[in-house]
Design brief:
By secondary structure, the protein is of the alpha+beta class. Helix content is 41%, strand content 11%.
Amino acid sequence: MRRTTHVLGFTLVELLLVISIVALLVSLALPALAGARAAARSSACQLNVRQIGLGVSMYRDAWNGLLPLATSMPNIQRDRMDPWRAVSGYLDAPLPSIARGGVIVPAPWRCPSDRREPTRQVFSYGYLAFTIMTFYDTMEPQRRATAWFEQHPRSPVFSDAGPFHREGRGGGIGRHLWRIDGSVERE
């Protein structure tokens, strides 16, 4: 009399079928994960803009409502970091620094979506009041720039230096803007 033993297990066809189904599910999930990652970077950038904006608001409270002075574009090589040097004291956030391995840019000065190599322009956020202050190359540029932004409250005081957030929901140019009223919007 012969005994037949049944080996429990999967056949090759069943195993290949399971592997192909898992591969299909993974290929469907990866774009969703990439979108979620981009949305998370955009949210972190918006939080940075809000935090820097709070520092600008605290500066204004301490300096009779004036915006921080900026006489040149920030440049770490030349130790020109206005207006962010004035704002950093209110944020308890260290400014970028040059180290042996390159430039160290701590939060909140760098947008997580900014893929540029930090060299001279290490800040991911541009201070648009600088343009107004250099336009009024006269006495009291802070007072004139502050008055201009108060008269044009929809104009951003600072924003992302580039269109870092084009992907994902919302479309638009892909920049976060901070306005003099303290609001943060995505353009």
